[in-house]
Amino acid sequence: MDDRVFLIAGASSGIGAATARQAAEAGYRVVLAARSVDKLETLADKTGGLVVQTDVGEYAEVEALAKRTLDQFGRIDVVFANAGVGHPRGFEAGDPADAKQMVITNVFGIYATIRATAAALRASKGHLVITSSIAGRRALKGSLYSATKFAVTGMAEAARQDFNGTGVRTTLISPGMVETPGFSHELDNVLTADDIARAVMFAVAQPPHVDLNEILVRPTAQES
User: Fold this and answer.
1) pTM to 2 decimal places
2) Which of 11, 79, 106, 161 has the greatest count of CB atoms below 10 A from its CB?
């Protein structure tokens, strides 16, 4: 596995960073992409990863990310489209400009990541992993964020169908309540980023004929 390449868009913290650490431990060469270069460089010190500053809302930057990876390593085996941001609930809450940026990041950013890496994934018969949310399966009151995750959930199935017959596998990861800095949950025992990273690594570790299309992960105590 020493030559296999694991590209993570949205690697600077949380699920992306945890997955980078676990992928490096599993023997992958990791590519770390996000807007926050300082966090990526700290992570690269621990994983040996290639740092590429990338705003997934700008297609030219995502295209450059794919090219830089191919120039450096010659292949891409796993793409983790994990970039995403939140927004306050309530259609009159928050700043409309921030809401627009969230839609661009959460929806267009996933599309851009798929498009820019599709040819490389077909060449390697690789694996596309996409982060959605339980909020992409049931609507949350007043939540535009939830609406973006519904779009991501649909996009994952659309991508699976588009890649069908090419050998590329597609997995949607839909977490429930996950421990997030600066955000509180009503449950004491929520999921950690490492919990979700283990689910990602489980999916990509399956043999080539097994396509694990969706993993929904909740804390044991979460009701819905």
Assistant:
1) 0.93
2) 11
In the set 28, 59, 111, 145, the catalytic residue is 145
The band of 183, judged by pLDDT with boundaries at 50, 70 and 90, is low
SS3 135: helix
Q: Tell me the pLDDT tens digit for each residue of 170-180.
A: 999 999 888 87
For residue 194, which amino acid is it? D
Q: Give the 3-state secondary structure of residue 210.
A: coil
The candidate with the shortest Cα–Cα distance to 149, out of 195, 214, 95, 219, is: 214
What's residue 204's pLDDT?
A: 98
Bridge partners of 50, per DSSP, are 31
CA distance 23 to 18: 9
Residue showing tokens 């694996």: 127
Active site residue 111: no
For residues 215 and 203, the answer to whether their CB atoms sit within 8 Å is yes
Q: Residues of 69-90 as b/e, b for ≥16 C-beta within 10 angstroms?
A: bbeebebbbbbbbbbbbbbeee
**Contact present, 79 and 121 (Cβ < 8 Å):** yes
What are the pLDDT digits (tens) for 206-219? 999 999 999 999 99
